[in-house]
Amino acid sequence: MELFEQVKVDLFRDNKKVSTINFYLQHLKTVCNFAVNQGWLASNPLRGAKLLKITATLRYLTEEELKNIFLSRVDGQREVVRDIFEFMTLTSLALSDVLRLSPAHIKNENNRVIIRIQRLKTSVECVIPLLYRANEILDKYTKDRNAEDNRPIFPHFDNKNFNRHLGRIACIARVNKKVTSHMARHSFGSRAVSHGVHLSAVQVCMGHKSIKTTERYSTMQTDGLQKEIDKLESLTTYK
Prior knowledge:
Residues 56-230 form the Tyr recombinase domain. This protein has helices at 2-13, 18-37, 63-70, 76-91, 95-98, 132-142, 159-172, 182-194, 199-206, 211-217, 222-229, and strands at residues 106-109, 112-118, 125-129. By secondary structure, the protein is mainly α. A hairpin with a 6-residue loop joins strand 2 and strand 3 (125-129). The longest helix has 20 residues, at 18-37.
């Protein structure tokens, strides 16, 4: 176990990333397991030794950065990518979910258009009241469809190509960050909390998977959720 801890210290001194340190430590544990299986060691001295915990840093865009991206002059596929990205910042949907969004997921409840969709990642249902600008984007991509057309609303992109176009849009908008699709989801959460949207409403929209969180979801009715999300309406007009 002392060797395990010493390796941690040495790798930290070499300024290795946490993921890199864990990679080496896991291999060290594997070697010890192999030695036990071969009869070279009576027991694994590293059994129970824990890898380092990785705390993810949430990366999001500021209001000014979002404004510059949404007002960027682009056309063709980049215009579509920009529209999808903006829609994601208004709904919290991940790219994998927004690209399978179909008219079947769009509901009218209490005279308000909402999205009900299960997240692919967690199977937790998201309930998202649509802001005015999000409705405008939906109308743009559904206006020429007939009522029976239940195909996905947005054109399909794989993650690599979507982020490649998004990176170019960020350059055009002079946003000095590596912008990726998942930053839209984080930006929704950041904007919502900073503008006073109740945390339980944010959790319902984002579909976070947690037993305690899920218990709190059940206490919020759809009309209350709509009132909370309406606090973001002022953010959707750019000039």
